[in-house]
Each structure stands twice: as C-alpha cells, then as structure tokens.
Design a protein that fits this description.
The complex is a heterodimer of chains A (168) and B (257). Helices cover 25% and strands 22% of the residues of chain A. Chain A is an alpha/beta fold and 168 residues long. In chain A, the strands form two sheets. In chain A, strands 4-7-6-5 form a four-stranded mixed β-sheet. In chain A, strands 1-2-3 form a three-stranded mixed β-sheet. In chain A, α1 runs antiparallel to α3. Chain A starts with a helix and ends with a strand. Chain B is mostly helical and 257 residues long. Chain B has a single domain, classed as Ferritin, CATH 1.20.1260. The chains are: A alpha/beta (168), B mainly alpha (257).
C-alpha cells in the first residue's frame, strides 16, 4: 500500500523531473521555472506555477503538456498557471543543471550582475569556457542560436564550435 | 473622464504596445531565409519571437481590459486594418538589411526606455511583461548597434548604404515619441508612460551609436508619419495583414493545427 506522503512526493517529483523539450538533460526544476507546486491529496489535484524563460519561448506549451501528462500518469488532475512576474533569470538554474549543461556540451550561464540602471553601451568581455577542452580562449560567433536561450561560440584552442546558454 | 472611458483608454494603450510588437514580429519573420547570412536569419527570427511573446501577453491583457473578452488570436487575426494601433515604423516593408538595422536600432532604443519605465507600472500584467521585455530588448538593441557600427564604420559602400537607410527610416521615428490620448490617460493612471518622455534618452542612445559608426544623424524630415495609434496605416499594412491573417480567416472554426 502506498502512503499518502509517498504519493504526494511521487507526483511532485514526477512533475519536477519533466525535461525541457529543447535541452532534455535539464529538468524544469533544474531550469528554475517551477515557481510553486501544491498537491491536494484529497482532491487528487495539483496546482503548478511556471514562469517562461523567454516571452516567446515555443517550448512553454510543450512543457505544460508534459506536466499534464506527468500528473495524469500519477492519477492527479493538474492546473498549470503561467506567471510572468518576477521574471525568470538564469540565476535560478540549479548547480546540478549547470553541470548537466556542461556535460551536454553547452556552456552554462554565468551569474548575472545586478544592475539598477539602463544597460551599459560598452561591450562586456565575459569569459566563457569551452565545454569540450575547458579553454577560456573562446569567441562569439552569433548572439542568437538555435533557440531563444542560446548563443553560438567557438573555441580558439580546440576550434570546436559550441552553444552557450545566454545569461539573462 | 468616466471610469469606463478611462478603462477603454488603458485598453487602447495596452493594445498599442501589443500591436507594435505583433506587427514588427511579423516583419522580422520575413527575414528568415533572406538575411545576408544564416546566423542573421536566426537572429532576426529570434528577435521576432521575443516580440511575438510580448505581443501575446499584451493582446491577451488588452482583450480582458476592453471588456470584449477577445483572446489573443481574435485580436491578431480577426481585426481589420483600421482597428490596429501600431505605429507606422513597424509596418513598413522590410527594405534592405540596412533599413532593418536602422529600424531595429530606433525601435529597440525606444522600447528599451519604455520597458525600463513600465516595470513600475500600476498594472501587474504590464509590469510583468516589461520585466521580461526589458532584458530581451537590451539584446535586440545591442544587436542593432553592432551592425550599425559595423556597416557605418565599414567600407565606403556599406557606409553610404547605412546612411541612406537611416534617412529612409527617419520620417517614421517621430511618431514613436508622440503622445496620443491613450498614452496620456495611461500615464496619468500610472499604467503607462508618455512616449514623449522617452525621446531624449532614446535619441541620445542612437546618437552615440551613430557617432561610433561615423554616421550622421539625418536632418529633421519634412514630413512625419502620423495616425498609426488611431488606426491610420500605410498601404503596405493591408498586404501584411492579408498574409498574416488569411489562414485563420479561411478556417475560422479550426481548433487544432
């Protein structure tokens, strides 16, 4: 017999483990987009609050559907709420998520500086390490990559092109 | 002004923000497969996608505020030209790559200042959209800046063409910073900001970029585009809407794609 506590954690764990459809090594929990998760055992209902990474991120709908599927497979109905504020930042990404990105060949985001005023005009020289050889001698090829959240870079040491998760 | 009139002015304001983003997203999407390099196809497509995301949230909210209960799709696909509230700048035909960079520089300079202010909006949804948009637009603005500097401070030909593009875009700039009735009402209620208050900061940004690019700020044009916020648009707007709306209008009852 399954205890209520176990069931509760099961459905919550299943939802938190839903993978990002574009970067499947990251769960939505690693990404930090699950802002709230409430399980009502009696009504067998789950309420999940997620926040989008980018305004136009096409993965949001797929993520919602995966959450619905995860809850239903545990015998729960689910309500997914999308919340815009506070805005998502890569600072919410877990350390294990960043390590997983690195292993997957995507340079993880660095920690953002907290600036109050308008964004400075000057080009900032950030150091991004190559996820293949570890060299910090890398260059930006394009600020926009295959998805809204990634930029394209190349390593000058091993010549390998790679993607970088943009710091936001 | 009665409470109902004020609500409708605020809905009008939010619709204007949403329409700017929606129509510009549509134009930027046209570059996919037509940009000078594949990275640029992706960049302009991604910028368009950010704007489309902003538009979706803003249109949904405008539909709640105006009391008609129209959703984002009804507002995007089932309104006629006279009901669109976007400025002329965003609807203009895409021109060459220089034109697009000139337009993106001005639009994102304006939008950067706008959303930096709207994060303090009295309307929660507008503030929420602004919090995301302010970071996204900073990226767009930086992208335009890089290209304008590269083209302006490039070869003789690229410099000439970038300068010509700035001249062509100039008549559409003033409208961005012109206060419409809805802007004033939204600003007074704390939901919005007067576009005229953004003029100095945005123009300063563009001026700095043009200096860096060894380009000249165009002279004050003889004529300025007007009336976009009241639904008066250019001829090209009809063609844009026809392309954007025809599938939805051909299959108004379709529920799955």
């Amino acid at each position: 017999m399954v205890t209520v506590v176990a069931e509760c954690s099961t459905v919550a764990d299943r939802i938190r483990a839903v993978p990002d459809p574009e970067i499947p090594v990251l769960s939505i929990d690693d990404l930090g987009i699950v802002r709230d998760l409430r399980v009502d055992d009696k009504a067998r209902r789950v309420h999940v609050v997620i926040t989008p990474t980018y305004s136009g991120c096409p993965a949001m709908r797929a993520i919602e559907q995966s959450i619905e599927h995860a809850a239903q497979s545990a015998g729960f109905t689910v309500e997914v709420e999308t919340r815009l504020s506070p805005a998502w930042t890569t600072d919410w990404m877990s350390e294990s998520g960043k390590a997983a990105l690195q292993r997957f060949g995507i340079a993880p985001p660095s920690t953002t500086r907290t600036t109050g005023g308008p964004v400075a005009v000057a080009v900032q020289r950030r150091r991004v390490a190559c996820p293949v050889c570890g060299s910090e001698d890398t260059e930006e090829l394009s600020r926009f990559g295959a998805t809204a959240c990634k930029a394209l870079r190349r390593c000058r040491s091993c010549r390998e092109p790679f993607e970088e998760f943009k710091t936001l | 002004m009665t409470a109902t009139e004020l609500d409708s002015q605020i809905a009008h304001y939010v619709l204007g923000l949403g329409d700017d983003a929606l129509i510009y997203a549509q134009r930027l999407g046209e570059w996919i497969s037509r940009a000078p390099q594949i990275e640029e196809d992706m960049a302009l497509g991604n910028i368009g996608l950010d704007l489309l995301g902003q538009a979706r949230a803003l249109l949904t909210h405008a539909g709640e505020l105006d009391g008609t209960g129209r959703d984002e799709d009804q507002l995007a696909y089932f309104r006629d030209e006279r009901e669109f509230r976007n400025v002329h700048l965003v609807e203009q035909a895409r021109g060459d790559f220089g034109d697009e960079m000139a337009r993106l520089l001005w639009f994102s300079a304006y939008a950067g200042e706008l959303y930096a202010r709207l994060v303090d909006s009295a309307d929660e949804v507008v503030a929420g959209v602004a919090l995301k948009a302010v970071k996204e637009v900073a990226y767009h603005r930086d992208h335009a800046r890089h290209w304008v500097v590269r083209l302006g401070d490039g070869t003789e030909v690229s410099r000439e063409r970038m300068q010509a593009a700035l001249e062509r875009v100039m008549p559409f700039v003033d409208e961005l910073f012109t206060d419409a009735a809805a802007d004033v009402a939204a600003a007074e209620s704390g939901v919005g900001v007067r576009p005229s208050e953004l003029r100095v900061a945005a123009t300063t940004f563009v001026t700095t970029v043009l200096e860096e690019a060894t380009l000249q700020m165009p002279e004050e044009p003889k004529r300025h585009a007007r009336g976009g916020r009241d639904g008066i648009h250019s001829q090209v707007m009809g063609y844009l809407l026809a392309e954007m709306q025809h599938i939805s209008r051909s299959h108004p009852d379709a529920s799955a794609w």
